[in-house]
Every structure is written in C-alpha cells, then in structure tokens.
Amino acid sequence: GGGWFGGEPVDVLKILQLHSLPEGVKKVPGFCSQRGAGSDVAYRINRQAQLSAPTRQLFAGKFPEDFSIMALVKAKPGIQAFLLSIYNQDGIQQLGVELGRSPVFLYEDQHGRPAPEDYPLFRGVDLADGKWHRVALSVSRRSATLLVDCRQQETRPLPRSARPVLDTRGITVFGTRILDEEVFQGDIQQLLIAADPQAAFDYCEHYGPSCAATAAGGPQAQEPPRQRQEVCVGGGHTRFSLGMEWGEPPRPQPQGPPQGRHPEKTTDDEHGTRLRQIPREGEIPREPSREWGSPRKQQDGVEPPPREWGQEPRQQLPAGRERPRVHPSVRPSHHGATR
C-alpha cells in the first residue's frame, strides 16, 4: 500500500496502474521531447478510461490535514472535469480537483465543512487550453493556494473544521466524479499527493521535470502566456464534445432533461481499477436544479450561450443542497443498495 513513509509523495498514476495501459489509456510523448536518452512518457486518457482504487492503496494511514496535490497535465481544450475524486466509506465525495476554466477545489470534512458554496473557486484560470501545465495545489489550515507553471495564482479560504478528517476507507477515482458525464480527456505525466503543504511551492524545483536547456529539449507545448486572463465562470462552460477523439466535430446531444446514470454495483478487476455501469435504458432523470455543477445539455446542435461575467458563480446552491454524489458500491447496506 501507499502511505507517507520517508516523506515521498504518493504517485497516484503508479497506484492506478496506468503503466499497464488499461482500456482508454495509451502512452504518448510527455512534457519534454528530449531528456537524456529519450523523451518523457505521458498517458493519453480518453472517455473509455475508468480508473479507480481503494483509497487505502494510496494512503495506508490517515489522510493528512495539510497537503499538496501536484500534476503535470495537458487537458483537451474546453473540458471541465475532475482530475481526482476521493470518496468516503459512505460514498460521499470528500475531495476533488477540477480542471477547466475557473476550476474548483472540492473538499468536505467529517462535519460536512465547507459547504459547496464555500468551495475554493479560482477565477481567471484556465487549466484546459490544450497546453502542458504544472498544476500544484497547497492546502494549509483554512486556505488553499493554486500555483500554475510555478507561479502563484490565488489563495482562497477553505472554511473547514479545526481538526478535519478525510476517510480513507472509500475509493479514489481518476478523471471524473461518480455519476458525472464530464470526464478528463488529455495527457497526464504526473499526479502526486504529498503530506506537506510546502511541496506545491517546490513542485517545479523538486518534483516536476524541467527540460534540458537546449533548444531540442524544450517542452513540447509553448509556455502559456504570463498574463492572467479573465474567463466566464458558472455553469455555462460545460463541454459538449462528449464521446469523441480530439479534433472531431461536436455531436449534438439528445433533447430532454439531463439524465443521471444509474450504476450497478462496482465490479473490480484484480487491481480494483474498473467501474461498471448498466446500460442507458436503466437511467433515471435527475433534478437539474438540485444537482451541483450538473452539465447543461446541447439541444439541436446549438451550444447554450456562455454565462455572462459577473453573474452568480456556479457553486451558489439553492437551500437544501444535495450532498456530493454517492457511489453505490460503498453505500451503507441500510440504504438498500447492494455492495
């Protein structure tokens, strides 16, 4: 299992067995085109990838109160999806790192704090522009700081409990949230979690690869522009190119209310890395107004207009918010679900 022995960060991609190239994952050149004898290796993730593991495989002991999450990632342009989701034993999502425009950091401790409307939201940042980015998130006490390409972007309050606990008895899911249609698509070379909030600030120096100083060994993608761009926030930046390879034209989505996937219980392979779902006939409509961050559908091939700058951000919830989504395989049996 994983853990924090020796202070080394947890290598999430290794634990999820990406090197064995499960369905939906293939090897591609990484961040540096030349490094020593060869190039970096990254993994291209498509919609078919379903990657998860028991959280205990990542963290043998308890999850640290203060920590860093670090990724070297090139997201498909326009996606809005969670790179990492950690669920508790009851299937409640307690941690999530979103990529896209104005990404959110989802965190909910054992007392349900903070509430979804208080999740840190990083406006003016776009982590899905088709370029390589070194993304580092530092969580310390009651704040979360985002660093992108070795430059600090923003520190946001994280109003959690005095002694926050995250449960390690559930599962960790890569690239999506349970029951979410939005999935990560793109290339990823590194995903690390360290029990040290300072690690995010040292990511480029200590953990993230820096390419050779020769022209041939430069990064594959251009360095992103140094100025920050303001972008629209809110529910209007959902991608509509569901189920396609890069560069294909968008497929119109069927009309009607958003559909919720109604999954069967999990069937794990030997590494615990598969999540199965029953066919679409078994789906049940969900209430879009109650669902935090639910995608807005494309109808008749027309994209909905983007949410105007200055409108309420998407995580403002109506009264009586729903809890984060519950994964059926880890729901307590008294809820009437199969394990």
UniProtKB/TrEMBL annotation:
Keywords: Repeat, Signal. Residues 326-339 have a biased composition (Basic residues). The keyword Heme does not apply. It comes from the Eukaryota. The keyword Signal applies. InterPro entries: ConA-like_dom_sf (IPR013320), Laminin_G (IPR001791), TSPN-like_N (IPR048287). Residues 238-339 are annotated as: Disordered. It holds the Pfam family Laminin_G_2. Residues 9-197 form the Thrombospondin-like N-terminal domain. Residues 261-311 have a biased composition (Basic and acidic residues). This is Thrombospondin-like N-terminal domain-containing protein. It comes from Accipiter nisus (Eurasian sparrowhawk).
